[in-house]
Amino acid sequence: MTQAVQAYSYAGPSTLTDGRLGLSTSGGTALSGPRTHPRFFSGLLTHAAPAAAGLLAVADVALARYHQPRPGWTRDPVVTCDGGRLRFESFSACGGVYARLDVLELDGDVLDRGTTNVDVNGPLRESLARVGGRDPLHLGVGPDELTVTTLDGAVVEKKVPLPSRWLRGFAEVQVIASGWDLRAELAGPHAVRFLRSLPKGARSTVWAVPSGRDLRLASGPARGGVCLSGTGRVATLLPLLRFAKALRVYGPADGSSTASGWELELPGMRYTLAVSPEPWRGFSGEGAVLSDLATDEAADDADVVGMLLNFEPTVELGLLADRSGLAIERVRAALTQLGTAGRVGYDLHEAAHFHRELPYDRDQVAELNPRLTAARALAGSGAVRLLGEAAEVTTDGGVRRVRIAEGECTCPWWFDHRGSRGPCKHVLAARIAARVAVEVAP
Question: What sequence ranges are listed for the domain SWIM-type (predicted)?
Answer without folding.
Answer: 400-435
